[in-house]
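haha ok so turns out i had the wrong file open the whole time. this is the CORRECT one, sorry everyone. sequence first:
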Amino acid sequence: MKHPHHLILQAIAEDASTEIEYPHPEGKWFPCDLVWLLGHIAGTYRIKSKPFLVNGVECPRPVKDSIRNTMTIIAYANSRRGMRKELHFAADADLMTVFNAVIKPFEEQGK
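then structure:
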């Protein structure tokens, strides 16, 4: 039988700089360490995602798991296929960082 958090423990073993987080009931994720995780096995945890660049701006990655109170960007492409993509973020500030990075070239062009 595997440990309930074996993927997190494996990631930490492979890279000691791996950061882990746990969810707060209000919907935000908070950092925690290995001691906390091992002391609270029944909890929910995730590996903190590494940021990525959008138009030269460092942005947080969307969360894969939709926890309560996540902020959402919904993108539509006006085509025959009616493409739709939803991106969920743990905090409003994360959403606004990505949104502002995406529209940055359009704002610069209008100046």
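The CA atoms of residues 9 and 34 lie 8 Å apart.
again sry for the mixup
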